[in-house]
Amino acid sequence: MLYDDPVGGYPATCARDGLPHLGAYPGGQTLPSPSAVDFTPGHPARQRHR
């Protein structure tokens, strides 16, 4: 579905610009940090057959 462009223009900032940087969970456990991209961007994920 397409919407009309906003009459007053687009917002100056994006909602994700204000997200805080998280270094660890509240209990101190570290957050996951992937070391590589394990998929090809723009290609659909391969479905696993059961």
Structure explained in plain terms:
With 50 residues, the protein is largely without helices or strands. The mean pLDDT is 77.
Rg, rounded, reads 19 Å
Uncertain residue ranges: none
Class computed from helices, strands and strand pairing: little secondary structure
Percent strand equals under 5%
Helical fraction: under 10%
What composes the largest sheet?
Answer: none
- DSSP summary, beta strand count: 0
Total helices: the number is 0
Question: Can you give the mean pLDDT?
Answer: 77
Tell the overall outline: flat
Amino-to-carboxy terminus distance: 34 Å
What does the secondary structure layout of this molecule look like, with pairings?
Layout: no helix or strand
Which terms summarize this structure?
single chain, 50 residues, little secondary structure, flat
Put the structure in a nutshell:
The protein is low in regular secondary structure and 50 residues long.
